[in-house]
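Journal club side-thread
Mid-discussion, someone asked how the predicted structure for our own chain would compare to the paper's figures. Pasting it here so we can look after the session.
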Amino acid sequence: MAIQENGNGGVMKYKRMDSDAVEEDGVLSEEKRNDSSRKYVLVCAIFASLNSVLLGYDVGVMSGAIIFIQQDLKITEVQEEVLVGILSIISLLGSLAGGKTSDAIGRKWTMAFAAIVFQSGALIMALAPSFKVLMVGRFLAGIGIGFGIMIAPVYIAEISPTVARGSFTSFPEIFINLGILLGYVSNYAFSGLSPHINWRVMLGVGTLPSIFIGIALFVIPESPRWLVMKNRIDEARLVLLKTNENANEVEERLAEIQHAAGHVNAEKYEEKAVWRELLNPSPGVRRMLITGCGIQCFQQITGIDATVYYSPTIFKDAGIKGNTQLLAATVAVGFTKTIFILIAILLIDKIGRKPLLYVSTIGMTTCLFGLGLTLSFLGNGSVGIKLAILCVCGNVAFFSVGIGPICWVLTSEIFPLRLRAQASALGAVGSRVSSGVVAMSFLSVSRMITVGGTFFVFAAISALSVVFVHKCVPETKGKSLEEIEMMFQNERPQQGGELELEDVKHLMQRQ
């Protein structure tokens, strides 16, 4: 009663306290929701990236396994080049088929199919009694990798919130680097076994990730954009509710996706129509293709796969003797590559794509030129060995902090929904062909112009990539996939598109 006698002041006090309590509960509830959403998208991105471990492991483990395969199966230098490089060439078949497959059965089950095909190939390689059987396994592994590298970035970009899309879409590159590191460690760990057994164990260990990929299928949802394309709107809404930090924005995001997918559903785009548009593109789509396919090709023709596949050859040319010592040096390369990809993840949505690309391409050019100088004039000495290791580690570090992960981010976010799967597949094809050509020609070219001379060529190509980034790559940080599509429709998106879009927003807010 004493409280009531205090009058309205008392009542107002209790009302204000209740209001504060409700507001605090709302803030806590929103924070919990945001935390839960971030964790859920993180788990999805991790599981979706597991196929990339298979690619990375194959790249890393083959650099050491090829030494013992050569001893055991008595293969020639040409067969060695074909065995190493054919995986990248064959993977383009998987990448080309990946777009149609992912639109037909969904992003999620395309990733599952990729894992099954790769694991089959890895098992055949581990048990191969001859070079011909080894090539059959390599063929299957390449197709599986083609599917996997094409679909994982697309899936992650479509499921991630705008503010963190760059970081999450970089996950496949993180897992490729993790796989490379595991491959290097496997080489070193099993190198002491007999040459008939060790390379088989090295390749066989690559089948283990299939267990985790199987578990992933029960955890990750289907892409909300693919669900909208199939008119499964309620399911798409449920996925967006789990992956979007702000519940109020779910309907807005769903409306944007429906609008973007409207052309697909209303006009019933067939595969032929999509490829017809890609082969005869509008100016905006042409700019997207130049940016997406160009950055994919530059990622590979600057020689990163040659550096990784043939790092024992590079260090041997620098003066390191003995297989164990060569493989131990490659482990340092793997650790460097993995550490710097983690740094890229922390920076990509804070600094932006383009600044990191500048740092990456300029740094790679410097290290590749330095490696060419070292191998040409300072080989077979302790100073030359140290400088060679430093330049190789520096090259993979600059690659991993920029063009390595960002090329996948860009190709997964710059294309409109109706073209995204097929255009990303086209970019992946360019990447795989470039990788295969470099890997299959490295030993022959090195024999003609020396290993040092080969890295001078890579340095010149890397210098061209700096110019390409300046001229053709726009900044996409902080923009929704739909906003990026609008940006590319402008006359000169790489120079002013993002500023023009922001100006329009400010004008609308003022009005």
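Post-session note: Confidence is low (pLDDT under 50) at residues 1-19, 493-511.
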